Amino acid sequence: MKRSERLVDMTKYLMERPHTLISLPFFVKRYGAAKSSISEDLAILKHTLAANQDGILETVAGAAGGVRYVPYLGKNHVKRYLTDLSSRIEDSQRILAGGFVYLSDILDDPQDLRQIGKLIATRYAYSKIDVVMTVETKGISLAQAVARYLNVPFVIARKQSKVTEGATVSVNYISSSIDRVSKMELPTRALKNNSNVLIVDDFMKAGGTLTGMEELTKEFNSNVAGTCVLCEADFDKNKLIEGYLSLVKISRIDTTKRIILAEPGNFVAHTDFSRFQ
Amino acid sequence: MKRSERLVDMTKYLMERPHTLISLPFFVKRYGAAKSSISEDLAILKHTLAANQDGILETVAGAAGGVRYVPYLGKNHVKRYLTDLSSRIEDSQRILAGGFVYLSDILDDPQDLRQIGKLIATRYAYSKIDVVMTVETKGISLAQAVARYLNVPFVIARKQSKVTEGATVSVNYISSSIDRVSKMELPTRALKNNSNVLIVDDFMKAGGTLTGMEELTKEFNSNVAGTCVLCEADFDKNKLIEGYLSLVKISRIDTTKRIILAEPGNFVAHTDFSRFQ
Fold first, then answer.
1. Cα distance from A271 to chain B (closest Cα, Å)?
2. What distance in Å separates residue B54's CA from the closest CA in chain A?
3. Cα(B212)–Cα(B220) distance, rounded to whole angstroms?
4. Pairwise CB contact (< 8 Å): B163 & A49
5. Its Gene Ontology molecular function terms (chains A, B) (predicted)?
6. Cα dist. B46→A250, B39, B69, B123, B226 in Å?
7. Is the Cβ pair A137, B138 closer than 8 Å?
8. Which of B57, B50, B51, B74 is CA-nearest to residue B11?
9. CATH topology (fold) of A75-276
10. Does A187 touch chain B (CB under 8 A)?
11. Which one of A81, A173, B92, B208 has the minimum C-beta count within 10 Å?
12. If you classify domain B74-276 with CATH, what class do you get?
């Protein structure tokens, strides 16, 4: 196979398997090419990804070595996307009763999910995440998008028990938007003990739902490696949680005057983009 | 930019935007290369995808022309995956009370979702799908995976109303597993009239839930372009629906003897793979 064909196939192969170590002998066999040619191919791939600040090709030396594609966006890509996203969220038609915001068009769009997934996966690319957790229903597409780029499973906590999941572990949490104690649960077989968990959700007001997922994580003797939400309602000042990241911060919703103000959240300030320097 | 670098970037660019027409002048400008060079690049890409029976690069001639990447798997890839998937489902630990089957490990795994999404997107690649529909909760990851490869939005029907979605349209349907009339609904702004809808779900017994989604589609003056489920329980003979496709057929579940039998469903027989001939 020619270099040009190898490069097309290799790019596709690696992109479909993020964070997976692929040995050089695998490519040598797949393409019937010399190891030195494969090394040159990979150098081209690495260089091209880096030039666009969109992806890192990591080389792992030694007998058990190989290459690994890490989805990773440069700072400018992230800032540009979050500025655009914030301005799209500043649309009065999104305002719903009770200070909620319609976001389904973003959470159901493959191109937005690709950007958001890659962006959050950049932040946690080197955090050794084992699993992404969210709670039904609207956080699911976000969790799946992040899980795709970290190439780990995602688990969905539920607010009601389903017969199709078997035994579950449940916790109570304060749901501040309805101001009462609620319950969420996870199938016992969905999460292994000692997992490193990334919690994501679509919308955060006081953060009660996020505390529920933290509780669930503890019940499985696991560790919260990070918490990241798509939108944070900054006007709800009584936060029940600390140390979370938000992509977008909604600073004001006026349901009477039909005004919604949004800006990029604290995500960029708390993300280390230095792998591209 | 050199051909080798262009090919890496072009592969990545097209793969991230399935079913999207990209004009040749766009690539000419992006790479500062001659149109003839870009055409040669694209021919290499097309040839390499076809050789692996994993993706089609379509060329659209004329002033408004360009190229389009269509995720499309060859028959052997599909058969191999479905055989493997069926044998993984034949695991007695999956049997839950009430003749249900634990599938969350498959529906939450990025690599399975990639294969399943691409596979269903192959079947409907030329059906002009506008939107993928499913019902909460477990069909969501499936819908998202298919939507990613068709590059269209997906919508989620709900069994309970949420305050964060605004106005909704609701329908009644017979939920045969609990043998009563249930309700599902969709936000009015989630689906445009005259849409071509692909309905997907994770598990089908009699098909009551699918009839609900068909009803919803009609309420939005839209058309059901196809219906596809991951698993069909073939032992439930009183089907409420016709013309659906299934990836896997579960022919027997014996909860006492802990036996579950599965095989590939009718998907392959009803899919035209001739685009690769």
1. 24
2. 10
3. 13
4. no
5. DNA binding
6. 45, 10, 9, 20, 28
7. no
8. B57
9. Rossmann fold (3.40.50)
10. yes
11. B92
12. alpha beta
In this prediction, residue A229 carries a pLDDT of 98
Half-sphere exposure of B175 (CA within 13 A, CB side): 12
Q: How far is A5 from chain B (nearest CA, A)?
A: 6
What is the residue type of B157? A
Mean pLDDT, chain A, rounded, equals 93
What is the pLDDT at residue B277?
57
| CATH number for the domain running over B3-72 | 1.10.10.10
- Residue ranges of domains in chain B: 3-72, 74-276
Amino acid A55: pLDDT = 97
CA distance A55 to A49: 5
How far is it, in rounded angstroms, from Cα B114 to Cα B121? 10
pLDDT cut 70: percent of chain A above it: 96
Which two tokens mark A36?
A: 């030195």
Please check whether residue A236 is in contact with residue A109, taking contact to mean a CB–CB distance below 8 angstroms. no
Predicted local confidence at residue B181, as pLDDT = 86
Angle at B116 between CA B111 and CA B118, to 5 degrees: 95
**pLDDT less than 50: residues of chain A:** none
Query: Helix (H, G, I), strand (E, B), or coil: what is residue B61?
Result: coil
Helical segments of chain A, H only: 3-15, 24-31, 35-52, 75-89, 104-107, 110-123, 140-150, 208-219
Does B151 sit within 8 Å of A104, measured CB to CB?
no
Q: Is the dihedral of CA A165, A169, A175, A179 positive or negative?
A: positive
Q: What is the pLDDT tens value at each position of chain B, 277 positions in all?
A: 899 999 999 999 999 999 999 999 999 999 999 999 999 999 999 999 999 999 999 999 888 889 999 999 999 999 999 999 999 999 999 998 877 899 999 999 999 999 999 999 999 999 999 999 999 989 999 999 999 999 999 999 998 766 667 789 999 998 766 678 889 999 999 999 999 999 999 999 889 999 999 999 999 999 999 999 999 998 777 788 889 999 999 999 998 999 999 999 999 999 999 887 5
- Both tokens of A96, joined, read 């719903």
Q: Rounded CA gap, A15 and A29, in Å?
A: 19
For residue B186, the chain A residue with the least C-alpha distance is A104
Structure tokens, A2: 């020619």
- Amino acid sitting at position B252: R
- Interface probe, candidates A2, A37, A48, A184, chain B, greatest B C-beta count within 10 A: A48
Q: How far apart are the first and last CA of chain B?
A: 34
Contacts of A208 (CB under 8 A, 6+ apart): A173, A174, A175, A176, A177, A182, A240
Q: Which of A 67-126 lie inside 8 A of B, CB atoms? A: 96-98, 100-105, 108-111, 113-114
Q: What is the DSSP string of B83-134?
A: HHHHHHH--GGGEEGGGEE--HHHHT-HHHHHHHHHHHHHHTTTS---EEEE
**Residue B111 corresponds to which tokens in the numbers above?**
């690599």
* Residue A71 host element (H or E): strand A66-73
Task: State the DSSP string of A142-185.
Answer: HHHHHHHHHT--EEEEBSS--TTS-SEEEEEEEETTTTEEEEEE
Cβ neighbours of A58 (radius 10 Å)? 15
